[in-house]
Write a structure and sequence with these properties.
Length: about 425
């Protein structure tokens, strides 16, 4: 395959710690700006009597977008020799959380920016918390504005130690800490001579070493059943393979009913041609050796890589409904092809997605809140932890016929674990 690999990175951090400057720098230093953008921005700054800022480059993208040119400010692209990158620059926390939980954005790694001079601030901590909530594990702490502290190693280590303790408590173990000056371009593309003590390399060198998630087809097989059709005397199980690879002859498990059988035939739904193998992203129609009664919502997997089976799990929910999400009320939960009645049995914690402040949940979860909850479903369902497999680890909640919230599964208590 000569398709270039793409990695999605989100940049977060306290306001004014240099997110836009860093993104502008990365675009500039990798020659990824639209033609003339830099001159235009310099000209504009001059006219307004301001000095040039790399951060203004992002505004230039925004302007282009307004003129109908298709650049999405929230998804900026650039390339190194090795691969392509998409930088996710959400306009606010709310949008970022909503996009991540709904699957509209998918951050594989995160840059958490800290100002070397100001140090770790309230929002730096809250952003750390959000990353842990979303299960983003590849976190890099970028210590910016090193020029303001005379490129002092001592200062860098102090910030690193302070932040590390906090992040470790959230179960975040940053892969690396990188000192830079986004404004002066120090340690961006190549190691900075101002910081000979830095052993990590430049930000771009480190980016190119971030391991890419395994391809979806190499992950555990998940084929949620969409429908079962009867043709002649055969039953054809139809669905879309969400992850993994399926072969004729494979022994498979059907969850949560726990039946095992063998794959007899596979046809791609699109052209009905028979095939021996199919993988993630394909809609297929299969037949199996033992024709049990299978139904929509069940999930096919390999026996050794089964999904979790439970009727109680912990989740992080983003609420969009006008009516509060409350405890002990019946809602409909949709997870891949499964629809089931559910209720919130415990609300553990609530965060206002715009300010990231902790909220009061005596009245339930209000619009634009993010909450850590425990959910109980009326019957056993099967799913995955979002951080392992996204498509079967994500769900929506329906209230009065409207999709009113999205959630990701963070896990189940050990005592609730029911893998068979
Ligand atoms: P954001 O709010 O996180 O996007 O922050 P900006 O990128 O807009 O930067 C805020 C201010 O910090 C701007 O005035 C930048 O010029 C300044 N700034 C950003 N990076 C650096 C840096 O590396 N060194 C210094 N001295 N100033 C910086």
């Amino acid at each position: 395959k000569d398709i270039r690999e793409t990695l999605n990175i989100v940049v977060v951090g306290h306001v004014d710690h240099g997110k836009s400057t860093l993104i502008g720098r990365l675009l500039y230093d990798t020659d990824s700006l639209p033609e003339g953008a830099i001159d235009k921005v310099k000209q504009l700054a001059k006219e307004k009597g301001k000095s040039f800022e790399y951060a203004y480059l992002l505004d230039a993208f925004e302007e282009e977008q307004e003129q109908g040119i298709t650049i999405d400010t929230t998804q900026l692209q650039f390339a190194t020799d090795k691969r392509d990158y998409v930088i996710i620059d959400a306009p606010g926390h709310k949008e970022f959380l909503k996009n991540m939980i709904s699957g509209a954005a998918n951050a594989e790694a995160a840059f958490l920016l800290v100002d070397a001079n100001e140090g770790v601030q309230e929002q730096s901590r809250r952003h750390g918390y959000i990353l842990s909530l979303l299960g983003v594990k590849k976190v890099y702490v970028i210590v910016n504005k090193m020029d303001l502290v005379d490129y002092s190693e001592e200062r860098f280590i102090k910030i690193k130690d302070e932040f590390e303790t906090f992040l470790n408590n959230l179960n975040i173990y940053p892969i690396d800490y990188i000192p830079i000056s986004a404004y002066f371009g120090e340690n961006i593309t190549k190691s900075s001579s101002e910081m000979p003590w830095n052993r990590s390399g430049s930000i771009i060198e480190i980016m190119d070493t971030i391991p890419k998630e395994k391809d979806l087809e190499k992950k555990p097989l998940r084929l949620p059943i969409q429908d079962v059709y009867k043709f002649d005397d055969r039953r054809i199980i139809a669905g879309r393979i969400e992850s993994g690879t399926l072969n004729v002859g494979d022994e498979i498990l059907i969850s949560p009913t726990n039946k095992t059988t063998k794959i007899k035939s596979i046809a791609y739904w699109a052209d009905r041609d028979k095939n021996d193998t199919a993988s993630a992203g394909m809609s297929v129609g299969i037949t199996v050796e033992d024709e049990f009664f299978n139904k929509r919502g069940e999930i096919l997997s390999h026996i050794e890589d089964a999904p979790i089976k439970s009727n109680i799990f912990n989740a992080n929910v983003f609420w969009m409904g006008n009516k509060h999400l409350i405890k002990n009320k019946k809602y409909k939960l949709k997870l891949s092809t499964k629809e089931v009645e559910c209720e919130i049995i415990t609300i553990h914690k609530i965060i206002d997605a715009s300010t990231l402040a902790q909220g009061d949940f005596s009245q339930g979860i209000k619009k634009n809140d993010v909450a850590e909850v425990t959910i109980k479903t009326k019957e056993m369902i099967c799913f995955d932890e979002f951080s392992n497999l996204q498509t079967t680890g994500r769900f929506v909640i329906v209230d009065d016929m409207n999709v009113s919230g999205g959630g990701i599964i963070s896990g189940i208590e050990d005592s609730l674990q029911n893998r068979e």
